[in-house]
Amino acid sequence: AGAACLLASSYLRSSTFESYLSSARAASTSGPGDDASPAELDYLRAIEVDPGSITPYEELVNDVYKADQNFTIEESSRLSELMSEHMTDIEDSEDYAKLCYDIGTLYYVYFEQDDGGDEARTYAQSAGVQAAQWFQRAADSYDERASSGSPCSLTSAERSSAAAYVTIGEFYQKLSQATLEGSEGSVYEGYWDSLTQTFELLGDDDPVMVRLRLYQLAYEAVSSPTYLNGFRRAGVTEQQAREMLQLVLASTEALSDDVSANEKSQQMYDQIMADSAGGSSAAARNIDTVYGSA
């Protein structure tokens, strides 16, 4: 009788879990105001039924929070609370590293921006550290599983990208501290190396928004006199700065047919390409000024 009850209970639990998943996949991803959407609520119910299954976490991140291309502060708060409560339930999964990588991407690309300021700077100050934390968790989980011979769904290329994104995400925080200590050169050098490495790792199969965010951050790096001076002192040459600028503009322009799918990607594209409108480049002039080759 006891075994039969356990079997019946397991079946009911599995059935309820699948029911919530099915409902979530069919539900609206838009909620009233800042409240959770119907889809999000059903994924949360599925997690409560089976917190050890990583599927509802993955679909919540990739199919709900990314759906409108804008990960809000309220959504971030709810996700942080969810992951804090259930981290131990899923951290041994072979898919945990990939989930952490996807959450890092969520902050890196989609986190809510302040329309009143410089978008790239606002991103870096508000989301960079949080993105870096999740990318670090992804890298750590990958390394731990690799050392023990356990399978991991995060690829080696994604592991390399995660390491670069950690440096990119921590740049502004580390720069503030290093400037006070007079050791900002190593921070600039590390940031430049990570930007160039991430460019090399990007491929056509990477989402357009991911590529645009990197192009936006790289453009910020080579168009700001402050950062250019930091890179110059760290050993970045004028030729390297010019090559990065040309790479950013050419890579961004190559996405011209892909950015109209949503307003945010079009806005990011327009912000970068506005620099070269009419053949005049503000970034190129700043490179001239900083490196003294007008």
Describe what this molecule looks like in 3D.
The longest helix has 26 residues, at 156-181. This protein is globular. The model has no long low-confidence stretch (mean pLDDT 86). It is mostly helical and 294 residues long. The protein has helices spanning 2-26, 38-49, 55-65, 73-90, 96-110, 119-126, 128-147, 156-181, 184-201, 208-223, 225-233, 238-253, 263-273, 282-291. Helix 10 runs antiparallel to helix 12 (238-253). The relative contact order is 0.07.
Would you spell out the secondary-structure blueprint of this structure?
Blueprint: H1 2-26, H2 38-49, H3 55-65, H4 73-90, H5 96-110, H6 119-126, H7 128-147, H8 156-181, H9 184-201, H10 208-223, H11 225-233, H12 238-253, H13 263-273, H14 282-291
User: Would you tell me the overall average pLDDT?
Assistant: 86
Unreliable runs: none
Order of helices and strands: HHHHHHHHHHHHHH
Based on DSSP secondary structure assignment, what is the total number of beta strands? 0
How many individual helices?
A: 14
Question: Brief overview, please?
Answer:
The chain is mainly α and 294 residues long. 73% of the residues lie in helices and 0% in strands.
